[in-house]
Amino acid sequence: SNSNNKKMPALEVNPDLQKERNTATFDPQEFSVYWAGGQEKYKAKKTLEELFLDDPALKDDLPTSYMSHKELYENSVRKSCLIGQKIRKLRADGEDGVDTYNALLGGSLGAALLKEGNPLSLHYVMFVPTIMGQGTTEQQVEWLPKAWDCEIIGTYAQTELGHGTFLRGLETRADYDASTQEFVINTPTRTAYKWWPGGLGHTANYAVVVAQLYTKGEFRGLAPFIVQLRDLDNHQPMQGIDIGDIGTKLGMKGVNNGYLGLKNVRVPLNHMLMKNQQVLPDGTYVAPKNSVLTYGTMMFVRCALIRDTAQSLAKSSTIATRYSAVRRQSPIDPNQPEPQIMDHTTQQLKLFPQIAKAIVFKTTGDGVWNMYNVISGEIEQGNLDRLPEMHALSCCLKAICSTDAAAGVETCRLSCGGHGFMDCSNFPTIYGMTTAVCTYEGENTVMLLQTARYLVKVYGQALNGEQLVPTVAYINEAIKLKEFVNFDGSLESIVKAFQFVAANKVRVAYEQIELRRRQGHGTEVSANLCGPLLTAAADLHGRAFLAQSAYKELTEVASHVSPALADVLKVVLELYLVDACLNRIGDFLRFIELTDRDVTNLEIRLESCLNRLRPNAVALVDSFDLHDRVLDSALGAYDGNVYERIFESTKKNPLNKEPVNAAFHKYLKPFMKANL
Amino acid sequence: SNSNNKKMPALEVNPDLQKERNTATFDPQEFSVYWAGGQEKYKAKKTLEELFLDDPALKDDLPTSYMSHKELYENSVRKSCLIGQKIRKLRADGEDGVDTYNALLGGSLGAALLKEGNPLSLHYVMFVPTIMGQGTTEQQVEWLPKAWDCEIIGTYAQTELGHGTFLRGLETRADYDASTQEFVINTPTRTAYKWWPGGLGHTANYAVVVAQLYTKGEFRGLAPFIVQLRDLDNHQPMQGIDIGDIGTKLGMKGVNNGYLGLKNVRVPLNHMLMKNQQVLPDGTYVAPKNSVLTYGTMMFVRCALIRDTAQSLAKSSTIATRYSAVRRQSPIDPNQPEPQIMDHTTQQLKLFPQIAKAIVFKTTGDGVWNMYNVISGEIEQGNLDRLPEMHALSCCLKAICSTDAAAGVETCRLSCGGHGFMDCSNFPTIYGMTTAVCTYEGENTVMLLQTARYLVKVYGQALNGEQLVPTVAYINEAIKLKEFVNFDGSLESIVKAFQFVAANKVRVAYEQIELRRRQGHGTEVSANLCGPLLTAAADLHGRAFLAQSAYKELTEVASHVSPALADVLKVVLELYLVDACLNRIGDFLRFIELTDRDVTNLEIRLESCLNRLRPNAVALVDSFDLHDRVLDSALGAYDGNVYERIFESTKKNPLNKEPVNAAFHKYLKPFMKANL
């Protein structure tokens, strides 16, 4: 089933890796289909992979890590246009569903095609959707056909050099000039420059620019404007536009993030997107009915990010697990040869929790996604009851999953020793892509504080005896419980204990804020002083949700798959929960009466989970079904020919094309001969 | 005092940053002198910085992140030769002490000159010292003058593609041919290829190659051989030498790490370094008297690495702290303007512990360095008593400090939001350099296991009532104590509690290994099963040492500096200890009777430490006295003109030299116009 994963068909599978596959107790194919979302999606995925990955023009002869920033940009544009052409064709054939865009632009297939990101992504995922979501029907008719056909290429410019999360702080302003029926847009200071938008540097010729709106001399709030950045024929920046690439970065190196200064740039009245708020020709401002809609988009994106973090962990753990089956080092028994490093328990502790987290984040991401769809249906019908709850949940899960995923990628990299440090392992790129998620779409600490603010409010409601919405209902139970009894180490009791501990973390934060207030601080200052307690409470809330979700979803899946697969998933679940508990054991010991013995028992169970997962570790990562091009790793290829592939990678290194580099003649020789 | 730190003298210091300096309660200059190691070393440091940093040829017009791998290599060789010339001159003037080499090749000045590493480093720090340490007097006379004068450039080739930590696994072999009095050196397999040595790729023309020695057909153990790699005149690889650059990496990108295959390469008898072991012309092998000496070098390097990790934290915390004084975001009080982000308690919790760790790792590094010198003096006099203790200590400290430093760098980077993600922040490079320490000179998990092996042995001795050496003597006390009483939260009691907890972690590991043995597993298998318990025990042992060392060293320093500085150092110490304790609170709660209230009190103390350090945070990082070129960060420059410098950095971006990139005409335009 994984035959199309083989890149160098002449090479046989490494015998150590083959042995792992031969002795696995379940069929990875069964899990692969589940992982892809069912038989139909599995097939669609394979078809899409073939269509894109078999195209030789979309393969890089020179790995991107050898390119200069400029070469990387030019190569990224070349490929993004090829991908755009294929998308155009898929669209013409009616095969351009949301899944397809996701896979090609953000998903693992997208990363296989443009591993450092696609400079056209924001055109598809932000420019077009913003016009759809915030444009009037007339505006959609005017702009969407051109945008869909890529006759114009747009981006979305909101964040500024000096202003990020706090939108009210944005400085870019649009002043309506009723005499010409135009907006005059300016970035009045250096910190007002738009900063970060993907594709903005040298790629896009249009942007939706978010600015502070003024009409009739009065401030009206933020509004989005369609602004032409570059001439459609010669691509020169339009008058008043100062534009360029912000420079090299830790990751996402091909995205062409740009900066944008605007000086008295005039756009006509109908370039303001007016679905939600309007400016009339005379400058009269009509305010939006409600501002809930923007929450919807943010929640949508954050829910999607949870699944992205699962993919990062799936990739990293696949690479590190296969490598650990092939690499041999450090005898366990001095009289025996060096074992597969996966036989070291310390190595298992690095790898297997990442595999488990990949699975739990994926199933939780799916669950939250369904929840989002239900709630956003309710919202569209005017029922906003569950909006704050959903917002709070999506914030903390985004923060926790991205933090854990970034740490997990690094754990996997470090588990591969020096070889993980080489770009041919692909870990450095995966890390860059993953850790970026900690910052974009809401910086993680800000996210946790938003969740915490909600939790503290809910805690006050609970104290007042009010009923609570589903995802925080456990707080009411914990308040009634006072003391957690009967921690028997069962999975159910770990889940319950997580909730009890989370409720107590919220209690501590609540009580300390109240204490600060009684000491005379204002509410906001009190909350700031208790910031670390608040983020810790939000962290535990999210982890309690993950524990409960892991239990619910994996038990569910296990109930309708083969017994062989079900057995493996049960070990995954147990490993996840025991590991999660031990990682927060301080909080458990603080709020629940546990003995040294209880902790030792958990540690022994962890060891047992690792041992029981050991025989199926390779089969589990195989079942993530990640194409070799997606992994792009000499260490993690399906055939396990690690050393051959590392060696092969040196052949592509431009430095190795000549036996003697010019620097010898220019610098080294004169230096060495100077004293002779 | 920091006047030479200013890069763009036309710019005034950012007023927010200046305000921080004006309101600090101590004189950073006083701490700077201590930090440099006293007045004399402080002056020497300044002189060296001037000599090297003012040389325009050693400045890069184009930041390295914009270069291709090949360009970066060529630029690195150019600069390393210039640095080599200056070293030659210093040597001629008799000013080439160990400190100078350290500063230029490994230290922060070295990083300012060649931020991605120096391809000649291994020549100075491994090739020359190995000849000095392992060559006979005749060999030293033959090789050292040429090597010191850089008439030949060497490297040190030990690690192989398939073999790292476990030296007995190395495959490269040297067979002595008595008929010609030569060794025949071979890398018989692909995995035997030497891999990783710095400068090996295209720079060095010599190497010390470590190989398995065979004479008279018998295996004799490892031995070092001087091997010529390239022709001295034309730099072509010698016959039988397959050599090149291993490729791009996460960090240390300019080091030219290489690979080396040897096929029947013959070297004369006197090319084996024979100070410790000898081969006679007829092939008779004379074994070394003891193998202790290699431990010495490893300990030496690991002790030095502890101080490097302190530098990484000093750099990162300087950048992030200055940025946090300048950046304003997210109101605390909605009626107030956006505050300096350093006023957010959550931000303080990210930054200040890194400042404290920088100081504690530095003072501990100094302390351990002195200890190493004492013990290595004892060793030279034949007294090996404290060797295992010192080895165990250096292993776990190397692991803990590098792990914490790498995590600390990332915490600082993430605390700067999106801007930390840009290469112009310098965080990506600092991270690459720092996380590398987790892997080289002994992979961290292997290091912790070595320490743990020692601790478990010592625990057995303690149970037998034996006396223990100083750094583990606390285990005996803890065994007597049974229960830890009187945890009053004082700094002394936190240090004592750390030791008690560490002793109990060792106990748990010891008991579990014993249990596995009683269950019928062999000793080695039992130890492997308990691997996670062992590494956790070694971690706590190291952290207990750090706590005790922080207490001892900082109390010491505070006793003979000005009261103003002493007050600040006391807050640093308290912050370090309380934070360290809370980070391992699970272990504390497991072994010591602490209540929820006790933990809350620690949390309140942490908050109090953060608040008390807040006014002096900028002055503290100023007193690390890191030159702007060392920081190389738009976010962290002394003048705090963050936005101006970020903006300035975009001017150097080759993509921004032309308003329209060629990719528009080649790819974008045809793509956009395809449907028209």
Please, could you describe this protein's structure?
- Two copies of one chain form a homodimer.
- The first copy, chain A, has 676 residues and is an alpha+beta fold.
- Chain A has helices at residues 15-23, 28-36, 39-53, 69-92, 98-106, 108-113, 121-134, 137-148, 292-326, 345-380, 387-415, 417-421, 427-436, 444-463, 473-481, 491-518, 523-529, 531-559, 563-583, 585-591, 596-613, 617-622, 628-631, 642-651, 662-673; strands at residues 154-157, 173-177, 182-186, 194-195, 206-215, 218-228, 241-245, 258-262, 265-268, 278-279, 285-286.
- In chain A, a hairpin with a 2-residue loop joins strand 5 and strand 6 (218-228).
- The longest helix of chain A is centred in the middle third of the chain and has 36 residues, at 345-380.
- The N and C termini of chain A lie far apart (65 Å).
- Chains A and B meet through helix 4, helix 10, helix 11, helix 12 and helix 13 of A and helix 4, helix 10, helix 11, helix 12 and helix 13 of B.
